[in-house]
Amino acid sequence: MTSTxxxxxxxxxxxxxxxxxxxxxxxxxxxxxxAVAAAMxxxxxxxxxxxxxxxxxxxxxxxxxxxxxxxxxxxxxxxxTDLTGVYAPLGKSLTQAQRMYxxxxxxxxxxxxRRIEPVVRDHGYxxxxxxxxxxxxQSSVVGIAQFIGSPMVTALKGRITSDKMFVLPNAWATxxxxxxYIQVTGTTYDxxxxxxxxxxxxxxxxxxxxxxxxxxxxxxxxESALNGSKYAARxxxxxxxxxxxxxxxxxxxxxxxxxxxxxxxxxxMSAGPRQSASLAGxxxxxxxxxxxxxxxxxxxxxxxxxxxxxxxxxDFYLASAGAPIGADLAPVxxxxxxxxxxxxxxxxxxxVVNGYTNALIFTSALKKACQAKDLTREGVIxxxxxxGVYDDGYGTPMxxxxxxxxxxxxxxxxxxxAKALGGLAVQRGAEESPExxxxxxxxxx
Amino acid sequence: xxxxxxxxVNGVSMxxxxxxxxxxxxxxFKATEVVNFxxxxxxxxxxxxxxxxxxDLGFLLALGAGxxxxxxxxxxxxxxxxxxxxxxxHAVLAIVTIGVDIVLTTELTRRIGTEVLSLGDPWRDxxxxxxxxxxxxxxxxxxxxxxxxxxxxLLAFRHTSWGVAMRAAAEDGETAALMGVRLxxxxxxxxxxxxxxxxxxxxxxxxFPTPGLxxxxxxxxxxxxxxxxxxxxxxxxxxxxxx
Lengths: 445, 243
What we know:
The complex is a heterodimer.
Chain A: H1 3-9, H2 28-55, E1 58-59, E2 65-66, E3 74-81, H3 88-107, E4 115-122, H4 127-138, E5 143-148, H5 150-155, H6 157-163, E6 166-170, H7 189-203, E7 211-217, H8 220-236, E8 239-245, H9 253-262, E9 266-270, H10 273-285, E10 292-295, H11 309-312, E11 316-320, H12 330-342, H13 350-371, E12 374-375, H14 377-385, E13 389-390, E14 398-399, E15 411-416, E16 424-431, H15 434-438
Parallel strand pairs in A: 2-12, 3-4, 3-5, 5-6, 7-8, 7-9, 9-10, 10-11
Antiparallel strand pairs in A: 1-2, 11-15, 13-14, 15-16
Helix pairs in contact in A: 3-13, 7-8, 9-10, 13-14
Chain B: H1 2-32, H2 39-57, H3 59-82, H4 90-112, E1 127-130, E2 133-136, H5 137-159, H6 161-171, H7 173-178, H8 183-206, H9 217-221, H10 224-231
Antiparallel strand pairs in B: 1-2
Helix pairs in contact in B: 1-5, 1-6, 1-8, 1-10, 2-3, 2-4, 2-8, 3-8, 5-6, 6-8
Organism (chain A): Actinomadura yumaensis
Protein name (chain A): ABC transporter substrate-binding protein
Region (Disordered) (chain A): 1-26
């Protein structure tokens, strides 16, 4: 098949075939009914033609094999994000950073002579909407460079595998490991907690027999983190005091009371930014001065503009695989400047680095696939999984050859700093503790 | 033991804040037989106005403005939407309030963006310690305020002509109208009052130990919904012996 034939066949999603509605004289209700029916038909049509495309890789004039989402002049890349739900601040930074990256790539000539076209869908951190968004773009994108939420990605695992969809989730639960098509970037939450306890014992004077409090969300995120803290506590001779909370719990008074009466010497925090702010605020107000280390989702720089700021600036740390946006690395500094120019007044947080570097990882797989003249989905994932250590210069070298283990076991310990860009400065550079080295990560499969 | 007392005081205090929200649901339901799904966005509106104005006006005036704004928004929904709807089935109106909620929440979250806003309350993160029991001042303030407001409401419900009109409207709207009770006024008052109570609740949902008002605050408001549904189908005070 020629490239033009291919272009005609490639579905571009339901949007173009969406009717503008029947004659205006009809009742509004009928218009709505017709539109709904048409949308369903269009979605059905897209799904059908998508299936027809999956197996049949065509070849373009330049000899590159093409699959879904790739045409002679375009590569469509999916972004399944949260722009309206609880992680909207995160989703906004990630998506803007990725758009900026793809624009830069396109300005430099694109990939394989093709422009990259991001296809952004908002799921509002809702599993059902995420599944609908996935179904809608499934047949028309080559892969997904941003997928927020481990519940969403976990729910779609089976379809991701059968569609051979290369997915970069913005979630770090261990349940996402063990799938060839899903690439968790950086560490997983458990590794971060193992390294956090190493930091506490080596640099914060926490010795054998000490008690460590751990507040964690129920579900994949918190329980992944708890696995790590349990393991490291056992290895280091520490006692863990667990406090499980729900995502809707915003007041950490009860947890702090429990930690205070247990007499903990440090606190681990695997929850959201609001919970961190509450925990730090209550703990410091009650005179607890123990160090607090949060998982990488447990902080946002906006908190430093609230009354919680003084508490968050006292002995509060973040365990993260990625370098912070204020890091003293030339590529990160360039990124921070470019982002600030493109989106003036927008918060520059670590999600900017995370989104941008994930887009870079995705694009480098596309480039490798282009060299192998195979831009089918299978070709892209094969390209991604080939090769040794990946290092883009943004502070987090990773290995993508295996998928049952995290891509790295090195964690940065960041400290809150009101003067630093993004509110965080590096306290301890990326390090892999002996405990993290020996830790067996339970992969989800 | 002190932990137990702390938890009880905190729990009762939070419960009283949710009671303020639930009371708003119930007032509207009793006066108009509409389940108000827009309550969470009224709460967010009140909180937002307080948060934006407290730097310029000071806390108390800003809170007053927030309460007035939420009451006004509630009254506006009543005047512009409910009063004009000529439907038999109140479930339709309930669904209309979902639409109002979506519009209001979308606009407010757009304005709030990614910020976490402080309401500028005077209690900050101070904690009172009595005999080993430490409780945040905000929790005590919440408990006192909610108690005062709820008591005032119950007294008004029982003893003022407004309260009598409201009870009559709740008992049997048609008969009340024949007896000279102006149902539109009762309904308008109910929406405004519910909005005002929601704005007060917004304050205590966002003060210490929570970091402040953000786009997620309205989710917390929905926690009071089951309370209103489970406990709210009958108003507790002053039911007439004949009923």
